[in-house]
Amino acid sequence: MSKSAIYARCSTAEQFPENQIMALRELAQRNGNSVIAEYVDSGQSGIKREREQLNAMINDAKRGKFQTLYVAGIDRLSRSVKDLIEVVETLNSFNVQIVFQREGVDTRTAMGQFFLTVMGSLYQMERSVMIERINAGIARAKSQGKKMGRPSKINSSLVSSVKLLREKGVSIRDIARTCSIGVGTTYSILREEFSLAN
Asked: Residue 93 catalytic?
């Protein structure tokens, strides 16, 4: 009888994980597995990657404490495609089989491997769409004349101070240190290669 573990998660403190745990115990028993550990994160969001019991479960998997992990559903393990893939791949690297009860997915089967491939593709698509949206937003802002990046700290008072210090023979490094700006910025001010902040 191979050793197995259960992972359960509830989003709010008012929810109780007992129903998840009882169903998973029965499933493990039907599959001929003995449950040697149960990990429960109560009142934890599925988006949050750092969860105490999730981390404990992964650490025990690394030590070979169990060979199969039972989870009520994919969303119980993670609501983020990226984090889900990372957790599943980490557990797979420790030779841990994952069984998602609701979806009927077993990561050791051909269908389970297909599921992982699809999830990986979805993550890549999600990432590509996000990057595309960011780039489109930047392009739109630039076309509207908006400046990107951090606002410039250069103003007329700073320019006057830098020029005055330089006229008095102060070194570039000392000017930069005194005015709390970079050496490159100091050179740019002296060469007047900048536009004053509003």
From this structure: no
